[in-house]
Amino acid sequence: MPGSPALIIIDVQNDFCEGGALAVPGGSEIIAQINALQADFDAVVLSQDWHPQSHTSFASNHVDSVPYDLVEMSYGAQVLWPDHCVQGSMGAEFHVDLATNRAQMIVRKGFRTEIDSYSAFFENDQTTPTGLDGYLKTRSISEVVLVGLALDFCVQFTALDARKLGYEVTVIQSACRAIDLNGSLAEALVAMKRAGVTLA
Ligand code: VGL
Ligand code: ZN
After folding, report:
1. Which of 28, 123, 144, 146 could form a disulfide with 128 if both were Cys (CB 3.0 to 4.6 A apart)?
2. pTM score, whole prediction
3. Distance 75 CA to ligand 1 centre (A)
């Protein structure tokens, strides 16, 4: 019997909300809607950006770099970010208003020093799995609904990987907010549409 769709809530953490180290404009505005949505799903998954202080995606760990610079990593282009979601820090905690009790699975990502991970399925080398695909498949889940932060980074990469893995994917745009770096939001919407993501 096929499982019912999973709601995957991406990175609703203090550092991505107002006052955080990598605040996404309007980040906390989506929390009430996300809390309400959870009642419609049997399967609820949270992702949590979870970096060591030495993470290579932090501009502070590169000489002569500042946040939002673009650098080449072994796996391709990588944006350098302000230090954020450091393991064990307040910034890495879920926002206090996010309802987390109904979540059955928390996927942590970005914990390897040398590789960033936007997607909740694969790290940015596009081959190292987080285990989420196995979790969903063993629960016979073939459809995912995505909400959270940031629409043009972690939500987008999760949506594109989910499509590559064969899931039906819906992104609820009103329950997402974007960073919008050099047109990244418009590009993300085009890429998701092209990949067959339903933009609701
Ligand atoms: C994210 C940049 C760096 C996200 C995570 O959650 O969209 N963006 N790390
Ligand atoms: Zn990150």
Report:
1. 123
2. 0.97
3. 17
